Amino acid sequence: MITLNLNDQVIKSLSRPELDILKYAYENTEALLTMTIQELAGAVSYSSATILRFCKKLGYSGFAEFKYALRAELRRTGPEISVQSGHQFTTGMLIDTISSNIQATSKLIREEQLNQTFRYLDSGCPIYLWSPGGLASVAVEYFEKLLLSIGRQEVYFVESVRMFEHILRSRTGPCLLILISTSGKYPTTIRLGKIAQVNNIPILSITPYANNEVAELADVNFRFFSNERENLGAEFTSRLPVFFVINTIIQCYLRYKEPSPADGEGGGYAAFI
């Protein structure tokens, strides 16, 4: 899986066209390596100048250096299988898509995000989880159950919007709000995030890799990569990386809590991510 110098700061700096170019690079890596900048511009329907800006934001001097780095990374990690559409779709392609999305998501998780999350978990403050419904609610319920299973107390999945608004406005002590959104654009989720922000309640969010308002509201934002365009009628395809993020948080937290052989304290999770 190509990494392309991705980190949260770089992703936040990318415009919508540049995010589309990033997605194309993930999904068509081998084809891109044979293209000129003009050919890529035609494939993504953006100008050569936009592609150059994209390359420079990723830290490369231009398109040629970007392709050189891409080719080197591809040699290191092995070839990607591009996702086809329509009648060309097969079960194997779906598996490849899911695998690629999860691998790409793993590259977006940073140690500083996990450290901040662990501080929230260690604080013992109440944790409130919200999702707008659908399969995202399954992910929220899963997160809740995992937190309770590792002994974290005061974890609440609140489904009523009115009750959630009351809780956020009336809290007097520390707490944490966890928002999971598969679009980052749902109005109710954004409204709850803004209420929490006004009341100085920290927010941890899990959202798509593209810039979105829910991510901007969060103190800690975990991004996941998914191919929304090629969902092929299977909504869960874009949700599996969300479960991967949740599992990574929990697994790394458990590793973090294990005593280190060197000093007897937690923190031995860095090699896990």
What does this structure look like?
The structure is a single chain. By secondary structure, the protein is an alpha/beta fold. It folds into two domains: 8-78, Arc Repressor Mutant, subunit A (Orthogonal Bundle), CATH 1.10.10.10; 111-272, Rossmann fold (3-Layer(aba) Sandwich). It has helices spanning 8-13, 16-27, 29-33, 37-44, 48-57, 63-77, 91-106, 111-123, 135-149, 161-170, 187-198, 213-217, 240-257, and strands spanning 127-130, 155-157, 176-180, 203-208, 220-224. It has a five-stranded parallel beta sheet, with helices on both faces. Helix 10 runs parallel beside helix 11 (187-198). The longest helix is centred in the last third of the chain and has 18 residues, at 240-257. It is globular and about 60 Å long.
Question: Short description, anyone?
Answer:
This protein is globular. It contains 13 helices and five strands. By secondary structure, it is α/β, with parallel strands linked by helices.
Topology at a glance:
Layout: H1 8-13, H2 16-27, H3 29-33, H4 37-44, H5 48-57, H6 63-77, H7 91-106, H8 111-123, E1 127-130, H9 135-149, E2 155-157, H10 161-170, E3 176-180, H11 187-198, E4 203-208, H12 213-217, E5 220-224, H13 240-257
Parallel strand pairs: 1-2, 1-3, 3-4, 4-5
Helix pairs in contact: 2-5, 7-13, 9-13, 10-11
